[in-house]
Amino acid sequence: MAAPKIPPLDTSLPSAPSPGATRSRDGEATRATILAAARAAFDEKGYAETSLREIARNAGVRPSLIVHFYGSKAGLLAATVEWPFDPDTVVREVLAQGPDHIGERLADVFLQTWEKDGRPNSALTLLHAACERPEAATLMRELFTTCVVHPIVTAIGPEQADLRASLVASHLLGLHVGRYLLTFDAIAKADADVLKQALASTIQHLCTGPLW
């Protein structure tokens, strides 16, 4: 009986990862470390009391690296909750068209955020969590109002800017609650463009019209 053949020993060394792949993995690990430090700081101290310098120190990186990755503290907060737009970009784009178009632009931005291809967007996860957990509610309020709505309303300089910003935010969030959580029949079935026009006129009045 013939002896079984023994396959030749593979003495080749495994190929080394390319420098580009190594840098990519390092960058992903650094981002993960920064996000973990940011979430912990925001949960403990809130958005306003947390500085980029503190997050950078806890993550073991330079503050400039956080700015490089996320642009600003608002951008970092958006990344920690996986928000699908950059708050600073939205503020600039909404204000760029002047005060007469604020209602339309804000309604458009947030309806696009809530929905994608006619279906709820994954960003709704945070809003659902905000109804159940105080820390999620705090993050939602700071991202939604402090980083987006309040800077826009304040920039046009109306009286009672704080109140107006809170009213605008409550209307935007109220649409979400009525359409996706309580599912009021007419709102749930309404076309997004119809809702945008109705919401836009209300927001515009709250931003630039008389409150009483």
From TrEMBL:
<dbReference type="InterPro" id="IPR036271">
    <property type="entry name" value="Tet_transcr_reg_TetR-rel_C_sf"/>
</dbReference>
<keyword id="KW-0238">DNA-binding</keyword>
<feature type="domain" description="HTH tetR-type">
    <location>
        <begin position="28"/>
        <end position="88"/>
    </location>
</feature>
<dbReference type="InterPro" id="IPR001647">
    <property type="entry name" value="HTH_TetR"/>
</dbReference>
<dbReference type="InterPro" id="IPR009057">
    <property type="entry name" value="Homeodomain-like_sf"/>
</dbReference>
<dbReference type="InterPro" id="IPR041678">
    <property type="entry name" value="TetR_C_16"/>
</dbReference>
<protein>
    <submittedName>
        <fullName>TetR family transcriptional regulator</fullName>
    </submittedName>
</protein>
<dbReference type="Pfam" id="PF00440">
    <property type="entry name" value="TetR_N"/>
</dbReference>
<dbReference type="InterPro" id="IPR050109">
    <property type="entry name" value="HTH-type_TetR-like_transc_reg"/>
</dbReference>
<feature type="region of interest" description="Disordered">
    <location>
        <begin position="1"/>
        <end position="28"/>
    </location>
</feature>
<dbReference type="Pfam" id="PF17920">
    <property type="entry name" value="TetR_C_16"/>
</dbReference>
<feature type="DNA-binding region" description="H-T-H motif">
    <location>
        <begin position="51"/>
        <end position="70"/>
    </location>
</feature>
